[in-house]
Specification:
There is one protein chain. This protein is of the alpha+beta class. Helix content is 28%, strand content 30%. The chain has helices at 5-14, 55-68, 85-88, 90-102, 135-141; strands at 39-44, 69-79, 110-118, 121-128, 144-152, 159-160, 166-173. Helix 2 (55-68) links the parallel strand 1 (39-44) and strand 2 (69-79).
Length: 174
């Protein structure tokens, strides 16, 4: 699963008999290009799900991905953890926790930011950054059972604690 046309092109070029690329919009319920109950595994990495900015889009995406899995199939998914002090700093994380306590809602964590692409040049982007418990109801709605949740520090690759890494799940279609 990826939202980048360039990455999808590259994946298509590298695809083989055992790896297929299905370009589609996983947040669009009318897009029927993905096969049902077809895959043993789906990888959704580097916070791709975070580019579905609205809660209902994220829910539809997880339901669509789950529908492509055979029973017992696995989804490997990681998302950006808005409580990751190692990545975002203590001040930002305290602000995120405070917002989640004072005004909890499904859109907390959706932010705009600028990405530096060259000296003096940036492009605007936005993404959703997740709290650790946010995906559990989405998995449940999609008949997915979490098997493992880990927090991964991307610079070192170390498995760490909830304040020190991004969130990685292995879930199973039930």
């Amino acid at each position: 699963v990826d939202n980048s046309p360039g990455m999808l092109r590259l994946a298509s070029q590298l695809a083989s008999e055992s790896v297929r690329v299905y370009p589609c919009d996983i947040t669009d319920a009318s897009d029927q290009r993905l096969p049902s109950a077809h895959f043993d595994a789906v990888w959704c990495l580097w916070n791709v799900l975070g580019h579905a900015l609205e809660h209902q889009q994220r829910r539809r995406a997880i339901v669509r991905i789950a529908a492509t899995l055979r029973r017992g199939g696995r989804l490997f998914i990681d998302v950006s953890n808005r409580y990751n002090i190692a990545q975002y700093g203590l001040g930002t994380v305290v602000g995120n926790v405070w917002a989640d306590v004072v005004r909890p809602n499904s859109e907390n964590g959706t932010v705009g930011y600028a990405i530096a692409v060259a000296p003096g040049k940036t492009i605007a982007s936005s993404s959703h950054f997740f709290r650790p418990g946010e995906l559990a109801p989405l998995f449940s709605a999609a008949n997915l059972r979490p098997l493992k949740r880990m927090f991964v520090h991307y610079q070192s690759g170390a498995i760490t604690h909830r304040w020190g890494g991004q969130i990685f799940f292995i879930v199973e279609k039930i």
